[in-house]
Amino acid sequence: MAGWRKSTHSANASSCVEVAIGIGVRDSKAPAVHIEVGAAAWNSFLSTVKRG
Asked: Which residues lie across from 6 on neighbouring strands?
């Protein structure tokens, strides 16, 4: 089983995006479906977010 995590800023909300390293992202309301995201794409996404 993957270690799905959501942002600590989400508190206990149920409408969140969750991420699992090496797996991808998913909507917490539809956990059976996820989008695969490779390491390079994820790192690019994080760099873009951090730059604002």
From this structure: 18
- Indicate if the alpha-carbon torsion angle 21, 22, 24, 30 is positive or negative: negative
pLDDT band, residue 13 (cuts 50/70/90): low
CA atoms within 13 A on the CB side of 37: 16
Domain boundaries, the chain: 14-51
Check: CB of residue 37 under 8 Å from CB of residue 46: no
Per residue in 18-42, pLDDT (tens digit) is 888 888 899 888 888 999 998 899 8
Among 29, 35, 5, CA closest to 15: 29
Tell me the one-letter amino acid at 30: A
